[in-house]
C-alpha cells in the first residue's frame, strides 16, 4: 500500500493506564513504518500545530479530549477507547463524549478498540464505528522470556484504582484463599480514589505491596514475577494491562466479557480463567484456585498486537480519509 502520510500526531499521553500505553506504542509503530510521529498531550500543544491541521500529508489520531478537534483537521482517525456510560462518568460527560464521537464518525473514520466496544457504542448511542483495531502492545513486552527460570510469587493488579475496577474483590478473595500462607504477595500497581479503601481492606491481614507510579520496565519486572493477574471490570473495552501480563507469562483471572476476552478467547481455560460479569468473591476464589493448579502455557505469542502491525492498520484507515477528500 502506498504511504501517503509523512507525519502522524496522536492525542493522549496525559491519561494513565491503557490510553497512555496506546499512544506510546502507536507512536513507535508509526516510526517503524518511517512515518514520524508525535504525542500531543494538551489543548495548547494541539493548537500550536494549527498550521498542520489541513496538511494532506499529516494524519491525526484523535483519542479522548482530542476528538473535539475532528472538525478542524483534514485527515483524522478517531478512536473510541470505550463506551461512555452515565453510571461511570455522569450524564454531562457521557453526553459530551458521545457527541464528540458522533461528530467524528460523521466526518472521519472512527475506530473502536474492540468489536465489543463498537457493539456497545451502537447499542447505547447509535454510533457505528467504521471498524475496530485492537490496541498495540509496547515493544518491551514482545521479547522472549525464559518462563522456567522465573519464580512467580505475586498476585497482581495493574491499573486505575476506581470503583468499577472491583479491586476490593481481589483483596477479599486473596484473604479467603489464604494465598499468603503459600508465600504469595498481593501486589497493587496504580492510583485512584479507591487506593486508601483498598489499603484499609488489606490492612495487616495480608502481605501486600502498593506502587503508584512505575515505568513500563518496572511494571514488566513485576508482571514477570506474577503467578496470577487479576481484572475485575466486566466492561473492559480492551484491557491492555491484561495482554501485557499474559505476554509476561502470568495466568489471567478476569470477567468473561470485554475486548480482551474477545481477542484471546482461544486461551480460555488454558491461560485465562473467567468468572461471570456479575460475580461474587467466591467466584473469584474459584478461578484463582483453577489458575494456580493449571500448567502454564509456554507459548505466549502476541505478534498480532505488535505496534508495527497495528500502525499499518491505522494507515489503511487514513487511506479512507485520503480517498474521501
Molecular structure report:
The chain has 325 residues and is an alpha/beta fold. The chain is 38% helix and 17% strand. It has a six-stranded parallel sheet with strand order 2-1-3-4-5-6. α6 links the parallel β7 (154-158) and β8 (185-189). α1 (18-32) packs across α12, α6 runs parallel beside α7 (195-202) and α6 (167-177) packs across α11 (281-293). It is globular and about 60 Å long.
Please provide a brief summary of the model.
The protein has 325 residues and is α/β, with parallel strands linked by helices. 38% of the residues lie in helices and 17% in strands.
Number of helices: 12
Question: Which blocks of ≥5 consecutive residues have pLDDT under 50?
Answer: none
Shape label: globular
Cross-sheet strand order for the largest sheet: 2-1-3-4-5-6
DSSP helix fraction: 25-40%
Separation of termini?
A: 18 Å
Estimated structural class? alpha/beta
Largest sheet entry: 6 strands, parallel
Q: In what range is the share of β-strand residues?
A: 15-25%
Mean pLDDT metric: 91
Element-level helix/strand string: EHEHEEHHEHEEHEHEHEHEHEHH
Number of strands: 12
